[in-house]
Amino acid sequence: MMRDRQLFFGLLLILTFVSLHKLCYCDDQTVSCESFDEPFGGSWIVSKNGDYEEGNKRITKTTLVEALKDEREDVIQAWYMDDNQEDQRLPHHKDPKEFLSLDKLAELGVLSWRLDADHYETDEELKKIRESGGYSYMDFCEVCPEKLQNYEEKVKSFFEEHLHTDEEIRYCVAGSGYFDVRDRNEAWIRVWVKKGGMIVFPAGIYHRFTVDSDNYIKAMRLFAGGPVWTPYNRPHDHLPARKEYVDNFVNKAFNASA
């Protein structure tokens, strides 16, 4: 009798070990899915036995092993643009949509943060960013028909591709807007910044701005020292700031991949 019990518990222990082994090691029973309708910084690993519908890209029955989401994407999203020249205030997604992670955006020199826009006066993280960057100057800019004279003309002028010889820092404290930048192959990337999103463009990067279809954004503008807002419309490749940007973020990347 005692021997039978020992055999029983021995078999039970072996079965438990085998079950745990199958749970911990994902072999051909799992698939990795990263294509969703919204940007997602991590990866999902789901059971093949779960329901995954390719059409609407929704997982309804899954075994979730890992999900790491970039919280900045709640207020800042980036995607490659289509070639349609209609209303600049539309999202201009490709079909299918092609999102870009904010870490990939940083490889172009574009840095981003998610901050507390409701308490920017006392936000310690904002204070640290300003101190580390030497951003001593600060003001606010509201872009909307009610606050900006010659609104339509101004919005069109903001959308001219240009660069600055200093960093451009924008912190959206209300509303939303689009900032477009070029990747290393000259393709346009649209960066949608909403309330709480802060973005820094390096000196020398070609970019442009437009409001979205809501026609309203209130942004904090930061600057190291006295503000200089001079835009240099493309082409201005001869400027030292442009040459330095190309050396640091374009040529180095191409050389590294060669």
Automatic annotation (TrEMBL):
<feature type="signal peptide">
    <location>
        <begin position="1"/>
        <end position="26"/>
    </location>
</feature>
<dbReference type="GO" id="GO:0005886">
    <property type="term" value="C:plasma membrane"/>
</dbReference>
<keyword id="KW-0028">Amino-acid biosynthesis</keyword>
<feature type="binding site">
    <location>
        <position position="168"/>
    </location>
    <ligand>
        <name>Ni(2+)</name>
    </ligand>
</feature>
<dbReference type="InterPro" id="IPR004313">
    <property type="entry name" value="ARD"/>
</dbReference>
<feature type="binding site">
    <location>
        <position position="164"/>
    </location>
    <ligand>
        <name>Fe(2+)</name>
    </ligand>
</feature>
<dbReference type="InterPro" id="IPR011051">
    <property type="entry name" value="RmlC_Cupin_sf"/>
</dbReference>
<dbReference type="GO" id="GO:0010308">
    <property type="term" value="F:acireductone dioxygenase (Ni2+-requiring) activity"/>
</dbReference>
<keyword id="KW-0963">Cytoplasm</keyword>
<dbReference type="GO" id="GO:0016151">
    <property type="term" value="F:nickel cation binding"/>
</dbReference>
<dbReference type="GO" id="GO:0005634">
    <property type="term" value="C:nucleus"/>
</dbReference>
<dbReference type="GO" id="GO:0005737">
    <property type="term" value="C:cytoplasm"/>
</dbReference>
<dbReference type="GO" id="GO:0019509">
    <property type="term" value="P:L-methionine salvage from methylthioadenosine"/>
</dbReference>
<keyword id="KW-0732">Signal</keyword>
<keyword id="KW-0486">Methionine biosynthesis</keyword>
<keyword id="KW-0408">Iron</keyword>
<comment type="pathway">
    <text>Amino-acid biosynthesis; L-methionine biosynthesis via salvage pathway; L-methionine from S-methyl-5-thio-alpha-D-ribose 1-phosphate: step 5/6.</text>
</comment>
<feature type="binding site">
    <location>
        <position position="164"/>
    </location>
    <ligand>
        <name>Ni(2+)</name>
    </ligand>
</feature>
<feature type="binding site">
    <location>
        <position position="162"/>
    </location>
    <ligand>
        <name>Fe(2+)</name>
    </ligand>
</feature>
<dbReference type="Pfam" id="PF03079">
    <property type="entry name" value="ARD"/>
</dbReference>
<keyword id="KW-0560">Oxidoreductase</keyword>
<dbReference type="GO" id="GO:0005506">
    <property type="term" value="F:iron ion binding"/>
</dbReference>
<keyword id="KW-0539">Nucleus</keyword>
<dbReference type="InterPro" id="IPR027496">
    <property type="entry name" value="ARD_euk"/>
</dbReference>
<keyword id="KW-0533">Nickel</keyword>
<dbReference type="GO" id="GO:0010309">
    <property type="term" value="F:acireductone dioxygenase [iron(II)-requiring] activity"/>
</dbReference>
<keyword id="KW-0223">Dioxygenase</keyword>
<protein>
    <recommendedName>
        <fullName>Acireductone dioxygenase</fullName>
        <ecNumber>1.13.11.54</ecNumber>
        <ecNumber>1.13.11.53</ecNumber>
    </recommendedName>
</protein>
<feature type="binding site">
    <location>
        <position position="162"/>
    </location>
    <ligand>
        <name>Ni(2+)</name>
    </ligand>
</feature>
<dbReference type="InterPro" id="IPR014710">
    <property type="entry name" value="RmlC-like_jellyroll"/>
</dbReference>
<feature type="binding site">
    <location>
        <position position="168"/>
    </location>
    <ligand>
        <name>Fe(2+)</name>
    </ligand>
</feature>
<feature type="binding site">
    <location>
        <position position="207"/>
    </location>
    <ligand>
        <name>Ni(2+)</name>
    </ligand>
</feature>
<keyword id="KW-0479">Metal-binding</keyword>
<feature type="binding site">
    <location>
        <position position="207"/>
    </location>
    <ligand>
        <name>Fe(2+)</name>
    </ligand>
</feature>
<comment type="function">
    <text>Catalyzes 2 different reactions between oxygen and the acireductone 1,2-dihydroxy-3-keto-5-methylthiopentene (DHK-MTPene) depending upon the metal bound in the active site. Fe-containing acireductone dioxygenase (Fe-ARD) produces formate and 2-keto-4-methylthiobutyrate (KMTB), the alpha-ketoacid precursor of methionine in the methionine recycle pathway. Ni-containing acireductone dioxygenase (Ni-ARD) produces methylthiopropionate, carbon monoxide and formate, and does not lie on the methionine recycle pathway.</text>
</comment>
<comment type="similarity">
    <text>Belongs to the acireductone dioxygenase (ARD) family.</text>
</comment>
